[in-house]
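Render this sequence as a predicted structure.
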Amino acid sequence: MEPFGIYGFESMSNSQKIQMLAKQFLSDGRERSVAEIKDYITGIYPNQFTIGTWSGAIRSLVTGNPNIHCTRRGYYQYHADAGQPANKEERMLITAKEILQSAQARLGALVSGIDMTTASDELVQLGLKLRACRKAISQQEEILNLIGVAGQEPQ
């Protein structure tokens, strides 16, 4: 069963899981510390995420979501009124990220359904190609994140 009704949640990367759960936790609009976010998520998935995954996921969450703001060091808050990105290029960047994340989750669901020990050679080859596609999608997401960060004005 997929937690929170999210299709493909179990096949998401650990970073994507952290981001999804953190967004849900922050959706009430209250300012939260990283420790509170970690406590919430580790209550659901204890001992599953490394320190590096945490820091990367939180950074990606803030840089990839215009509604989540770092209010002070180590504290984050969701602002529903942040609205749509200011320009067409930012909207395109966010749309591209959402498409890649959706594709990666769907590919993950397909790959996780293949039992490599009993599958035919053709199905094994398909599974390997799907995994390669997921890796390529992850790389494209990283590039989009870098483009998004590079396109922002320094604060």
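Summary. The beta strands are 32-33, 68-72, 75-78. The CA atoms of residues 90 and 148 lie 8 Å apart.
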